Structures are given as structure tokens and as C-alpha cells.
Amino acid sequence: MTTHTTTDAAVTTRDHSTLALILGILSVPGSILTWGALPGGGFVWGAPLALVAVVLGVQSLSQSRGKAIAAIVLGGAMLAMMVVWTIAGLG
């Protein structure tokens, strides 16, 4: 007797593009307003938000492309701004 068992696990993916966009928007004041005002500046307050926004944006590109791309652009711009400001501050 042959028994065939198949399990069709439903793959559910959650759309994190809205969360990524919110984090990308919050990374703007977290990077700009805290620079030189709070301990750690943008590295402590804005960089984690920007990094998570980019990661979640990349993961959710297939669900909601517009919000995901906006989150990636905002987060990437804030990370790039921190690098540029750090290099400019060295000179």
C-alpha cells in the first residue's frame, strides 16, 4: 500500500512596505535634527531607522513597489548623508 501525503503549506508574506516607509520618514528628523544636538547624533537616532527602512523596503518590493522604493530612497539618502557629513567634518 502506497500512501502519498502532501502538505501544502500556505506561504503567507506580510506587506511591510508601510512600516518601511514610516521608518524611512522618521529617519529624516532622526538623522538631521539630532546631528550635534543629542549624544551620538544621527548615528544613534537616525541610522537604525534608515537601515531597517532599507531592509524592509527591499523585502517588500514585490508587495507594494511604490512604498518600498520610497522607503529605500529615504533610508539610503539618510545613510549617505551621514557618511558625507562625517567625511566633511574630518576636514
What does this structure look like?
- The chain has 91 residues and is mainly α.
- It has one domain.
- It has 4 helices and no strands.
- It has helices at residues 17-32, 41-45, 47-59, 65-90.
- State the major sheet: none
Overall structural class, as computed from helix and strand content, comes to: mainly alpha
Rounded mean pLDDT is 88
Which percent band covers the strand fraction?
Answer: under 5%
Oligomer kind: single chain
- From the N-terminal CA to the C-terminal CA, the straight-line distance is 79 Å
Q: Secondary-structure element sequence?
A: HHHH
| Outline type | elongated
Helix content: 55-70%
Q: Show unreliable segments.
A: none
Return the domain count: 1
What count of helical segments does DSSP give?
Answer: 4
Radius of gyration, Cα only, in angstroms? 19 Å
Q: Care to count the β-strands?
A: 0
